[in-house]
Automatic annotation (TrEMBL):
The keyword Ion transport does not apply. It comes from the Eukaryota. Gene3D superfamilies: 2.70.98.10. It is an enzyme of class 5 (isomerase). It comes from Aureobasidium subglaciale (strain EXF-2481). Its EC number is 5.1.3.15. Residues 1-33 are annotated as: Disordered. Belongs to the glucose-6-phosphate 1-epimerase family. One of its GO terms (cellular component) is cytoplasm. It catalyses: alpha-D-glucose 6-phosphate = beta-D-glucose 6-phosphate. This is Glucose-6-phosphate 1-epimerase. Substrate binds at R74, Q98, R103.
């Protein structure tokens, strides 16, 4: 059982007015605000698979995504922990799979907290937080053996009128330090990749995974897509990366205590090679903009904790 600093409070009925609703069926937790905005989170991987605002779906989910807990979910917001990409051979994570165990473990649903708007007296709640936890007790024997550290993760997904926030708290519960990386592998739904540009990249160096992991300076502030893109933009000073469609702001990713952003689109060839990526031309309708701490490793000493996250804002 994950110990929590703030235990879930039951939804406190406000004086009057509509309340957020939460439903959990043991596999998935769904929350909605009175405005109709909603979020759906699978316990498998604590993967957010849907985030809607003003009737629009902001996340891309493969039509062939496995939602049965057999495979990392292809789409939404998979949580990468404790290694990003293939684990390096000479590292404590070396026996773990690509992107670690966070996205392929069954998390515990810890509960819900709601907060009221400044709408005194009107009682309209304007945000709802869902908390999920993961400890070694939740790992498969194979994963526990592959990474035998004492840790606890608390993942909080907060839906508000202003957007969706995801925060990860990592705590070292053991007596030896460990290294980790983490990232929110967010698949955004977009209408047409040829009309998309990503901005906020000015002056940021990146590692280009399709050019043998060589380092480059980003030329200008924006990135357009004309083929496979798989880049790690590292050590940002500005905290916001934006997705524009037809030059109009569509989505913002605001990093909190995370220095890196991965940008990925597999394009036609990549999509063909990924069995659960469907439809195959779905690469035209998605782009991954992934806030993370993946350049190097964070070392967490015994009993220390680390917290970081992102805020996603939709302009729709
Ligand atoms: O975050 C980008 C990336 O690491 C790419 O290199 C890419 O292959 C992708 O993630 C998808 O990885 P997955 O293990 O989900 O197939």
């Amino acid at each position: 059982m994950v110990e929590r600093s703030h235990k879930p409070s039951a939804l406190t009925p406000s004086t009057t007015g509509p309340q957020p609703t939460v439903h959990s069926d043991g596999k998935k937790v769904t929350a909605s605000l009175p405005s109709g905005d909603s979020v759906e989170v699978m316990l498998y991987g604590a993967t957010v698979i849907s985030w809607k605002n003003n009737g629009h779906e902001n996340l891309w989910l493969s039509s062939n995504a496995n939602l049965e807990g057999k495979k990392a979910i292809r789409g939404g917001v998979p949580v990468v922990f404790p290694n990003f990409g293939p684990a390096p051979k000479d590292h404590a994570t070396s026996s773990l799979p690509q992107h670690g165990f966070g996205r392929i473990s069954n998390w515990e649903y810890l509960g819900t907290t709601s907060s009221e708007s400044g709408n005194q007296g009107k009682g309209s709640d304007d945000s709802i937080r869902l908390d999920f936890g993961l400890t070694p007790n939740n790992l498969s024997d194979e994963m526990k053996k592959a990474w035998s550290y004492e840790f606890s993760l608390q993942y909080s997904v907060t839906l508000s009128k202003d957007g969706l926030q995801t925060m990860l708290n990592v705590r070292n519960e053991g007596d030896k330090p460990f290294d980790f990386q983490t990232l929110f592998h967010t698949y955004f739904a977009i209408p047409d990749i040829s009309k998309v540009k990503v901005t906020g990249l000015s002056g940021v160096r990146y590692i280009d995974k399709i050019l043998n992991a060589t380092e480059h300076d980003s030329k200008g502030n924006e990135l357009r897509f004309e083929g496979t893109v798989d880049r790690v933009y590292k050590s940002f000073t500005q905290d916001t990366t934006s997705i524009l469609v037809d030059d109009k702001p569509r989505l913002d990713v605001i990093r909190d205590n995370m220095q890196d952003t991965v940008i990925w689109n597999p394009w036609k060839e990549g999509a063909e090679a990924i069995a659960d990526f469907e439809p195959k031309d779905g690469y035209k309708k998605m782009v991954c903009v992934e806030a993370g701490a993946v350049n190097g490793w964070i070392t967490l000493e015994s009993q220390d904790s680390f917290e970081a996250g992102q805020i996603l804002k939709s302009h729709l």
